Amino acid sequence: MVQRWFSSATQEENKTELLTSRDSAYSNAISPRTNVNSVQVTTVSGDIRRMLSKEALPFSAFLTDTFGRRHSYLRISVTEKCNFRCQYCMPEEGIKLSPRAELLSTEEILTLARLFVQEGVNKIRLTGGEPLIRPDVLDIIAKMREFEGLKTIAVTTNGLNLARLLPGLQKAGLDLLNISLDSLVPAKFEFIVRRKGFHKVMDGIRKAIEMGYNPVKVNCVVMRGLNEDEIQNFVALTKNMPLEVRFIEYMPFDGNRWNFKKMVSYQEMLDHIKQEWPNLERLPGAEADTVKLYKVPGFQGQIGFITSMSDNFCGSCNRLRITADGNLKVCLFGNSEVSLRDQLRSGATDEELLQVIAAAVGRKKKQHAGMFSISQMKNRPMILIGG
Ligand SMILES: C[S@@+](CC[C@H](N)C(=O)[O-])C[C@H]1O[C@@H](n2cnc3c(N)ncnc32)[C@H](O)[C@@H]1O
Ligand code: SF4
């Protein structure tokens, strides 16, 4: 049984536990008598002080970093493979896939996911590569649905097989969908993704609306000289459709030939949209939202901006990532990783795994290095991270 400093049970239980366990939790955290490692001890004591001073509701110390950020959102990449070859995501020559035995099995994914949920993760997103080409994806979602405390299961998909798979996904318990779409012009779409499939993706979007997903989130990576001229057409899509079109600033990853000139910043996109819709309204966002939301008054849907490059949201980052080969990444733009797969396969207990996770979370930096440093830095290509 893992020793947990705080439970993520009901709010009432949490309050009671906090009141009764404050002293012991605090002294555990600062005392070397506990069986946690030293990195964690330092981290936890600071966090507990912060938690006690600021919050009535506790959150797992294992998933709280030295800056008080609580990581309640886990993204799991379930495959390195993809049926598209998007220019911004992977090098033209492709990537070297890990041998199958090095990838997480269904059981390993579920074991890790369960552990994170027990510690307070309440949202899991499956990504990839293309998550919907993993044959057991429905099974994974259905089993996760049974985890107590997991509020939201999301998928980010390129949409190619979505129309066919969505009834099963919904039945399995899928709550949220992000579908990537970078152009409304079929030939351009196919140029960007280096494959055919525009109409199938559009069918997937329509199917998601028909099946009641609202909003259906559409991810659009904006690149100068490629699709920046379509920004207004994407906004216009939200007039009669319950979409949330998310314009994503183009980010540098290994092999994607990023350069500053190709990136269209949030401010530039906003100015462009306001030329057509000067009364565009800013919508309030939740605290940990990475998206800046807007709406054209009277439109059914809304738009958003993911501004990782020009205006980072590191301060409210609540995300952790597990790659398909089982590495924990605490920052999308950081290259430090720790293998949870190796821990699992060497028979680590839940407590030992949590110590490794807590140490990695404790090392998370305050913010990423900035776009120019990131573009020079060694990191995985996006397809091997998962977004
Ligand atoms: C890596 S993909 C994986 C999931 C799925 N295959 C898909 O395309 O939706 C996750 C998201 O990352 C986005 N993405 C990939 N490379 C990017 C880059 N260089 N800059 C910004 N977003 C990127 C994609 O557009 C996609 O929405
Ligand atoms: S963005 Fe998604 S669909 Fe495109 S290559 Fe990357 S993983 Fe595949």
Automatic annotation (TrEMBL):
Domain of life according to the entry: Eukaryota
Cofactor(s), names only, from the UniProt record: [4Fe-4S] cluster
Enzyme Commission number(s): 4.1.99.22, 4.6.1.17
InterPro entries the record matches: Aldolase_TIM (IPR013785), Elp3/MiaA/NifB-like_rSAM (IPR006638), MoaA (IPR013483), MoaA-like (IPR040064), MoaA_NifB_PqqE_Fe-S-bd_CS (IPR000385), MoaA_twitch (IPR010505), MoCo_biosynth_MoaA/MoaC (IPR050105), rSAM (IPR007197)
A Pfam short name: Radical_SAM
Uppermost EC category: lyase
GO molecular function, one term: GTP binding
PANTHER family tied to this protein: MOLYBDENUM COFACTOR BIOSYNTHESIS PROTEIN 1, MOLYBDOPTERIN COFACTOR SYNTHESIS PROTEIN A
Subunit comment: Isoform MOCS1A and isoform MOCS1B probably form a heterooligomer.
Reported function: Isoform MOCS1A and isoform MOCS1B probably form a complex that catalyzes the conversion of 5'-GTP to cyclic pyranopterin monophosphate (cPMP). MOCS1A catalyzes the cyclization of GTP to (8S)-3',8-cyclo-7,8-dihydroguanosine 5'-triphosphate and MOCS1B catalyzes the subsequent conversion of (8S)-3',8-cyclo-7,8-dihydroguanosine 5'-triphosphate to cPMP.
NCBIfam families on file: moaA (TIGR02666), PRK00164.2-1 (NF001199)
Family: In the C-terminal section; belongs to the MoaC family. In the N-terminal section; belongs to the radical SAM superfamily. MoaA family.
Name used for this protein in its record: Molybdenum cofactor biosynthesis protein 1
Biological source species: Coilia grayii (Gray's grenadier anchovy)
Native organism taxonomy: Eukaryota, Metazoa, Chordata, Craniata, Vertebrata
